[in-house]
TrEMBL record:
Keyword DNA damage appears in the UniProt entry: yes
Residues that hold ATP according to the record: 27-34
PANTHER family in the cross-refs: ATP-DEPENDENT DNA HELICASE SRS2, UVRD / RECB / PCRA DNA HELICASE FAMILY MEMBER
GO MF term set: 3'-5' DNA helicase activity; ATP binding; DNA binding; hydrolase activity
Protein name: DNA 3'-5' helicase
Keyword terms: ATP-binding, DNA damage, DNA repair, DNA-binding, Helicase, Hydrolase, Isomerase, Nucleotide-binding
Residue ranges annotated for the UvrD-like helicase ATP-binding domain, each copy included: 6-287
């Protein structure tokens, strides 16, 4: 047992061995938070203070949960199966499966991922004849999820005008539709689990007395509902609350756009009367130059709880900066550099390519692919989100739960069975009249459409019968064959990759039953919805790791290439107008930089193709926030290029200079220049696209006008 605690510094040791009381470990990147949390679990169990059964731990991703379980098994001779370690969504799913009746759900309830949810909302709007220009489905999705994440049901939602009243009414309709179909979206998993424990006293008492220790990683990115759920489960305010052990880093809060609320850290400290907040300041991950850069960048944020990191590791290599002419050049250079790292003995899986936006991965992938270097993309178009996989899953879902209208609508006519839109409309109308699911309505229908729909229903019934007692991979195989999906993609000209993916689904099923606790079809479908992007990332694969900065949170790599470090891309143009947005981007930059152990590369391109357009940009302001002596420029430094400041005030302070790369053909205007527009007032040119008569300028007018793209030929701009 001592060996368990051997490799901890005094602060870490203090944190691991705290008595059972509310605790907050507030510490920067790479200071061992996750390690402390995992070690504490092992310590609690090995000292007999709890059993594997008596604690619950929340991680941010399923991947992190798996890693934690693997480390625990290495530290202790215990069987980690059945331990409640997972993401909020995963744990809530588990709770609802165990108590589906009390939660008011069918046994085989299905989970809607974000795309399914949007499809369900569109279907609803159509059925109700709602103008989707006035009530855009995406907006409504955001509205519904926002309310759910704040713990607000439709009957309690605020409505201050007619437009919002209508949205609330649609929220209520959506709730009814989901209930009827036996499906829950992501936010619903949490809200349902929360309501279940609120309403059901005996159940609450059961779990409160069972989980005496609750441990939460990445606490800074919890949202309001998650915090409330934790509070409830911990029996906060009751006679014998559980010991909540939270670790987090306010500087790494990067999910505000999804409702995460750093304020939870302050509330936790106050409401749980946390006696000692432990800070860890020694970083064990990165070499000194990398850490100094991270510290310098984050120091520019104003709202911080404040901490600094140091390391014993020595300065290490400088941060390498490469400025390419185009995104293609950038990718080419990165791949050459990767090849040389590999020649020097680096393992491919220790090298990561990070980017701010998913769209950037295409060029990088292309270059890696044509050089024959194996790589894996995390996130992006996720395996379980691919069209062919979603089709296959829809068949499987109908077998598990025939009332799932989203699944029904997806495959009733795929592959084509001659069921037209008109028949489906008739069906949807009757379903509303009878208040039954589409599937259950089919027998009520008369006439020709009824016949082809009945054939579909029979197909699903036959598949259900035939697969009843088969193991999961055989169920999948049967469905791929009998649904006609395989035949469909075999006949498609570029269907090979899709067929390969369908086969991969068989493997996913086989893997699932070898690992899962609930190796059923329903269990597999829940896994497919919850794990989405993480499936591809199987750790054994020796491949370069590609992912967004968001997806890289909590991970570490020997070498990190952070690409596209340009104004407008990183910080993202949508965020630079507000301080909050910019500070969140800076935290994201801090997360990116602190992923690197030994080598950090920053790369940028003067021009890149993005969303079908060429954009010209300047280096990111974040580069200027790194002390220059830490950086080694691998390309001649473009002295003339200066980053612009978003506020006009700042633009006045910093006289704009010509930018070599964009001054050419934009009517004499330059990036960084201050201009006046008749309607929008004064603004700063941020970037330019096209040239000559087609030139467009992106201008930041600040205030209520914000960022605008203007055609140079039309805009009548004056230099100020
Ligand atoms: P992040 O904020 O990025 O999630 P973290 O604070 O969770 O980082 P960990 O991932 O737990 O940090 O630790 C970072 C690295 O430092 C890991 O490789 C970990 O094994 C190592 N480490 C942590 N503490 C020690 C220690 N006392 N001695 C040696 N290595 C350590
Ligand atoms: Mg961590």
């Amino acid at each position: 047992m001592t060996s368990l605690l051997d490799n901890l510094n005094p602060e870490q040791l203090a944190a691991v061995t705290l008595p059972p009381q509310p605790a907050l470990i507030l510490a920067g990147a790479g200071s061992g938070k996750t390690r402390v949390l995992t070690t504490r679990i092992a310590w609690l169990i090995s000292t007999g203070q709890t059993t594997p059964h008596g604690l619950l731990a929340v991680t941010f991703t399923n991947k992190a949960a798996k890693e934690m379980l693997a480390r625990l098994s290495a530290m202790l001779p215990i069987n980690t199966r059945g331990m409640w370690i997972g993401t909020f969504h995963g744990l809530c799913n588990r709770l609802l499966r165990a108590h589906y009746r009390d939660a008011g759900l069918p046994e085989t309830f299905q989970i809607l991922d974000s795309a399914d949810q949007l499809a369900a909302i569109k279907r609803l709007l159509k059925a109700l004849n709602v103008d989707d220009e006035k009530y855009p489905p995406r907006d409504l999705q955001h509205f519904i999820n926002g309310n759910k994440e704040a713990g607000v049901r439709a009957d309690a939602a605020d409505a201050w005008d007619d437009w919002t009243r209508k949205k609330v009414a649609l929220y209520a309709e959506y709730e009814r539709q989901c209930q009827k179909e036996g499906v829950v979206d992501f936010a619903e998993l949490l809200l349902r689990a929360y309501e279940l424990l609120t309403r059901n006293e005996p159940l609450r008492a059961h779990y409160q007395s069972r989980f005496r220790h609750i441990l939460v990683d990445e606490f800074q990115d919890t949202n309001r509902l998650q915090y409330l759920w934790l509070k409830l489960l911990a029996g906060h305010g009751g006679p014998a609350p559980a010991a909540v052990f939270a670790v987090g880093d306010d500087d790494q809060s990067i999910y505000a756009f999804r409702g995460a609320d750093v304020g939870n850290m302050r509330d936790f400290e106050r409401e749980f009367a946390v006696k000692s907040v432990i800070r860890l300041e020694q970083n064990y991950r990165s070499h000194g130059n990398i850490l100094d850069a991270a510290n310098a960048i984050i120091a520019n944020n104003s709202r911080r709880l404040g901490k600094n990191l140091w390391t014993e590791a020595g300065a290490g290599e400088p941060i390498r900066l490469y400025e390419a002419l185009t995104d293609m050049d950038e990718a080419r250079w990165i791949v050459e550099e990767i090849q040389s790292l590999i020649r020097d003995g680096a393992a491919r899986s220790d090298i990561a390519l990070l980017y701010r936006s998913n769209a950037q991965s295409r060029v990088l992938e292309h270059q890696l692919f044509s050089t024959g270097i194996p790589y894996r993309v995390y996130g992006g178009l996720r395996f379980f989100e691919r069209q062919e996989i979603k089709h296959a899953l829809a068949y499987l879902r109908l077998i598990a739960n025939a009332d799932d209208d989203t699944a029904f609508a997806r495959v009733v006519n795929f592959p084509t069975r001659g069921i037209g839109a008109r028949s489906l409309e008739l069906l949807a109308d009757s379903a509303r009249t009878y208040n039954t699911s589409l599937y259950a309505t089919v027998p009520h229908l008369a006439g020709r459409p009824a016949a082809s729909l009945a054939v579909f229903v029979r197909l699903i019934e036959d598949m259900r019968q035939a697969t009843r007692d088969l193991p999961l991979p055989e169920v999948i195989d049967h469905v791929l064959e009998h649904s006609g999906l395989r035949a469909h993609y075999r006949a498609e000209r570029e269907g090979e990759e899709r067929l390969a993916n369908l086969d991969e689904l068989l493997n996913a099923g086989a893997n699932f039953i070898s690992e899962a606790e609930d190796p059923t079809l329903t269990g597999f479908l829940a896994h497919a919805s919850l794990e989405a992007g993480e499936h591809q990332a199987d750790a054994g694969q020796e491949a370069i790791q590609l992912m967004t900065v968001h997806a890289a949170k909590g991970l570490e790599f020997d070498a990190v290439f952070l690409t596209g470090v340009e104004e407008g891309l990183f910080p993202h143009e949508n965020s630079i107008q507000e301080t909050d947005g910019l500070e969140e981007e800076r935290r994201l930059m801090y997360v990116a930089v602190t992923r690197a152990r030994k080598r950090l590369y920053l790369t940028l391109a003067q021009s890149r193709m993005l969303h079908g357009q060429t954009r010209y940009s300047l280096k990111s302001r974040f580069i200027d926030e790194i002390p220059p002596q830490l950086i080694k420029w691998l390309t001649p430094r473009q002295a003339a290029q200066r980053y612009y400041e978003p506020s006009l005030e700042a633009a006045h302070r910093t006289p704009p200079r010509a930018s070599a790369s964009v001054a050419r053909d934009t009517g004499g205007f330059r990036i960084g220049q201050l201009v006046r527009h008749a309607k929008f007032g004064e603004g700063v040119i941020v970037s330019a696209e096209g040239s000559g008569g087609d030139a467009k300028l992106q201008i930041n007018f600040g205030g209520s006008h914000g960022m605008k793209w203007l055609m140079l030929g039309m805009a009548k701009l004056e230099a100020v």
